[in-house]
Amino acid sequence: MIEIGILGSGSMGTGIAQVAATAGHIVHLYDNNPSALSRSEAFISKIMARLVEKGRIDNTEAEIIKGRIHYETNMFACSESSLVIEAIIEDIDIKKQVFEQLEDTVRPSCILASNTSSLSIASIASACKNPERVIGIHFFNPAALMKLVEIVPAIQTSQETQQKATEIINSWGKITVLAKDTPGFIVNRVARPFYGEALRIFEEGLADAATIDWAMTEIGGFRMGPFTLMDYIGNDINYTVTETVFKAFYYDQRYRPSFSQKRIVEAGYFGKKAGKGFYDYAENAVNPEPQKNQAKGEEIFWRILYMLINEAADASYLNIASPADIDLAMTKGVNYPKGLLAWADEIGIQRCVNGMDKLYNHYLEDRYRCSPLLRKLAREGKGFFK
Ligand SMILES: NC(=O)c1ccc[n+]([C@@H]2O[C@H](COP(=O)([O-])OP(=O)(O)OC[C@H]3O[C@@H](n4cnc5c(N)ncnc54)[C@H](O)[C@@H]3O)[C@@H](O)[C@H]2O)c1
Question: Is 98 in the same domain as 53?
Answer without folding.
Answer: yes
